[in-house]
Write a structure and sequence with these properties.
Strand order of the largest sheet: 4-11-10-9-8-5-6-7
Number of helices: 15
Radius of gyration: 23 Å
Shape: globular
Helix content: 25-40%
Number of strands: 14
Distance between the termini: 36 Å
């Protein structure tokens, strides 16, 4: 069961540490089954409750998972293994279509907004005890949330979308709880959930968003939370349609205690409307990040939700960083208010590049997906081979393993910096690299 590796220790902490050392050293591999608690207790000469406490600690740390009668096993993706490690090194002279960055040419200049925010800080320095949220940012964010049909609720600010998602999950869930996640989905979320000691329950995604049938199954099976991307879904480019949103809301109405987290990181760069799900569950949040529209270094996201959730996020934030820099908040508020980003132009630019690649691939018989945002998802029979063959042609793309739980293999191509001249050559290279192209409805 465990090969030659002996689990050691007399106390729960020692036993847990022994298993963690073995996982870190590679002596215990993902998927390996641990001994039943009574068997290990007899082997170590300790009380079974001691082993039970050790296993509980390991579950809370995301090192192991329990599969019912099949016992406990080392997690297939331990929390200490980040999916960002599944990256491709871009060779000299190669094109980076793997890292998911926006086009620098479409980002606004920040100097004027930063100077104005700094001058305001000189006139009225931020001090301990001040309001941690800039009122101008609240005003402009609330107006746009209202326009998009997001329910009214208090508003706070976090250091980006992932920070918001982590704080909301921690505010409501306990280790061992299950979270329904998009599959394929954002790799950082797929790492974050087990890192918090939570379990991921995959929900299939097609071009219109998460599958209502998969979501119902996940919630019926005990998932306590759902993380969903309304548009510009990473990595598939999926975008919720009005019809799909209605179907998902119907499922959520049957599970009103579900914690709903909606990530709208595509705000400002997409030309498709938002169809929010919020309002049908007791606890919910909608998160909007500034990173894609204004630049990844502006670590600012606006979060609105039900009063209990927002209050818990604010309270825990006070005990950590305290608040997100008012200098950055004021900068984002000015960029947002003054229209520093021509959203129509940016959305049209990304849409033109994305649609051109999808069309060119279709002409070559290659199935791909990309309704919105900066990425195109291409199902492939063999990720490793496809990535390697494209790399040989000078194109670095992201392996789908960074974004998958149980879904089929694929590759993610970030289209943000593609030119018209790139499309044909890239489509030819992808066509040669992924043959045969698997055709399927769900990505």
């Amino acid at each position: 069961m465990l090969g030659e590796y002996p689990i050691e220790g007399r106390g729960a902490a020692e036993i847990a540490a022994s298993v963690e050392r073995a996982v870190g050293a590679g002596d215990l591999r993902p998927g390996q089954t641990l001994p039943p608690m009574r068997e290990l207790a007899a082997r170590l000469g300790v009380n079974p409750n001691t082993v039970a406490a050790a296993y509980r600690t390991l579950r809370e740390r995301g090192v192991i998972e329990t599969a019912g009668r099949r016992g406990s096993r080392i997690r297939p993706k331990p929390a200490t293994t980040g999916r960002e490690e599944l990256r491709v090194e871009v060779p000299a002279g190669g094109r980076d279509l793997a890292t998911g960055n926006p086009d620098p040419a479409l980002l606004p200049h920040l100097t004027a907004a930063l100077v104005a925010a700094a001058e305001e800080g000189d006139r009225r320095p931020v001090l301990y005890g001040d309001d941690p949220v800039d009122p101008d940012l609240v005003r402009v964010a609330r107006a746009e949330l209202d326009a998009d049909g997001v329910p009214d609720g208090p508003l706070t600010v976090t250091s980006g979308s992932l920070d918001a998602i982590e704080r909301v999950l921690a505010a409501h869930l306990k280790p061992g709880d299950a979270v329904a996640v998009e599959d394929p989905g954002w790799g950082s979320v797929l790492d974050l959930v087990p890192a918090l000691g939570l379990r991921t329950v995959p929900v299939g995604v097609d071009d219109d968003g998460p599958s209502p049938e998969d979501l119902r199954h996940a919630l019926d099976s005990g998932a306590r939370a759902l993380i969903v991307t309304g548009r510009a879904q990473n990595p598939t480019g999926a975008s919720l349609t009005a019809t799909r949103a209605r179907a998902l809301r119907a499922v959520l109405r049957d599970h009103p205690q579900t914690l709903l987290i909606e990530d709208d990181h595509g705000h400002g760069i997409v030309d498709l409307p938002l169809h929010p799900l919020a309002g049908v569950t007791r606890h919910w949040v909608v998160v909007r990040s500034a990173s894609k529209a204004y630049g990844p270094d502006l670590r600012v996201a606006v979060l609105t939700g039900d009063p209990v959730t927002v209050d818990r996020v604010r309270g825990r934030q006070r005990l950590g960083p305290g608040w997100v820099s008012l200098l950055l908040q004021r900068t984002v508020a000015r960029l947002w208010t003054e229209g520093a980003v021509d959203r129509v132009t940016v959305a049209q630019a990304y849409a033109a590049r994305r649609d051109a690649l999808v069309e060119a691939l279709a002409e070559r018989g290659v199935v791909s997906h990309g309704r919105s945002g900066m990425n195109v998802w291409v199902p492939v029979p063999d990720e490793t081979g496809a990535v390697a063959r494209l790399l040989q042609q000078g194109w670095a793309v992201a392996p789908g393993a960074r974004f998958r739980v149980a879904s089929r293999p694929g590759i993610r191509i970030t289209i943000s910096t593609l030119t018209e001249e790139d499309i044909s050559a890239l489509a030819d290279a992808v066509s040669a690299a992924v043959r045969p192209s698997p055709a399927r409805v769900y990505v």
